[in-house]
Amino acid sequence: MPRTDYAVVVPTVGRPSLRRVLRPLLEAAPEDAPAEIVVVDDRPDPDAEPLVLPDAPLLRLLRSGGHGPAVAREVGWRATDAAWVVFLDDDVEPPADWPRRLRADLADLPDDVAGSQGRIEVPLPDGHRPTDAERAALGLRGARWITADMAYRRTALHRAGGFDPRFPRAYREDTDLALRVLDAGYRLVRGARVCAHPPRPGGRWASLRAQRGNADDALMRRLHGPRWRDRVGEAPGRLRRHAATTAVLAAGLAAAVAGRRRLSAVLGGLWLARTAEFAWRRTSPGPRTAAEVTDMAVTSALIPPLACAQRLYGELRAARLAGAEPPLRAVLFDRDGTLVEDVPYNGDPEKVRPRPTARAAVALARRAGLRVGVVTNQSGIARGLLTRAQVDAVNARVDALLGPFDVWRVCPHAEEDRCRCRKPAPGMVEDAAAALGLRPRDCAVVGDIGADMAAAAAAGARGVLVPTPATLDAERRAAPRTATDLLGAVRLLVDAHVPDRAEERVWFPSRG
Question: What positions does the domain Glycosyltransferase 2-like occupy (predicted)?
């Protein structure tokens, strides 16, 4: 069996089970071992105790800032180079032969197969029938395309644009990616490898916290249409029933306030009957202990209104994300640190190196029908460190590697000149928009520092920050939007602001 070039990405929130995930990968035979393992620490506290990982040359640790598993996986896979990227959760238990069986699953897959899912086994609890929380974990056994154990071709990830950072929880972000990969013309298959996923106790009120998923379902509906569940083989949820129960409760309370006692009593009885039926559905398969019955009774009364509230929040959020602002017509990129590596006062075209995903980002903007331009501060001219001819030569090299760009605007002044064009002033953004026949509000500015975002805000344009090590924490916090890389920034803009194109999935070359 030929060696398979694969990397493993494991997002973590610091669970002790992480070592059990890593052990079979680190102990695998050389012909079965991954090219590298990237652990992405997604704990939000920057001062958290550092993770202690085994000392291994193929193991790397990155941080993603606590923005959720979608961002953590994005940070992880984009830091690798292997042909296949395998995502594992930090609470699965791959057996010792998992690397060998993974290789067998991936060997000789045809080019139109973009992904291979491992089988997830959730052991039944010993000595009792599963509780409501345990049954939720058991549902992983039949779930499709979940990233608890999922391998994707790198080319498919690039073509689909990777994980969508608008999914903030470990819920639906993997389904969203799978549907976009399928939309790109690929197939997904199930492998023969197996991972165990022990039920994780969620606490007494885990079912209430789970209702936050209704907000993510609203985004799924917005992105993939009302029948997206059919495509992943998932049964309809209970939201309509919850909405009816909540409406009965609200009507009963309104009748009571209005003094209509008989109507209030009838509606109260109907609400009680619906709630009892829901509680019995959740209680009957389980152990029926006193604690479980009590929890089911209380949470069954709270879940319907909570689910409806979360769905309403999700619909409002999805509508805002999907294009509340005017249609976007152009993207204006900063140059140094954004499109190309920042070489201080660079006057040598041979030193121009595109930033990761820069080519794909500019190409995506063009496929979406957007104009593209560059707005760049070049104070080296005013300081005598560069000539305008040198700057123009470097710009020509950038244009040759990443363009062509529709407009260039260069500020040659130093900060002390107090010109109106140097970012954070709005002049270059306004001039570039005018040259394209647009208003600044029709444009977005993508850059790596706060001055780029301030120039966008001052001109009335949109801004997306793509942080680098040079970006200050205060600039990150103040940014209106952030993305992990250029492609993510443009994808965020395209999906949220390009009018009447969402159904075309414009970032897929085969559909653009």
Answer: 8-120
Furthest CA-CA distance within the chain: 87
Query: Residue 340 in 3-state DSSP?
Result: strand
Query: What distance lies between CA 478 and its chain's CA centroid?
Result: 20
Candidate CATH numbers 3.40.47.10, 3.20.20.70, 3.40.50.150, 3.90.550.10; the one for domain 6-201: 3.90.550.10
**How many whole angstroms separate alpha carbon 442 and alpha carbon 446?**
14
348 catalytic residue (yes or no): no
- Whether 132 is catalytic is no
pTM of the model: 0.66
Distance from C-alpha of 303 to C-alpha of 172, rounded to nearest angstrom: 20
Q: Classify residue 205 by its DSSP letter.
A: T
CB distance 147 to 174 below 8 Å? yes
Average pLDDT, integer, range 30-41:
95
The rounded distance, in Å, linking the Cα atoms of 337 and 320 is 29
> Whole-number mean pLDDT of the chain?
89
Question: According to the CATH classification, is domain 330-504 in 3.40.50.720?
Answer: no
| Per-residue pLDDT, 1 | 59
With beta carbons less than 8 A apart as the criterion, state whether 448 and 338 touch: yes
* Annotated active-site residue in 334, 442, 448, 485: 334
- Residue-range domain boundaries for the chain: 6-201, 203-322, 330-504
pLDDT for 321 equals: 64
How many Å apart are CA 64 and CA 70, to the nearest integer? Answer: 10
Phi and psi of 294, rounded to 5°? -65, -45
Candidate list 336, 431, 448, 485, residue with the active-site label: 336
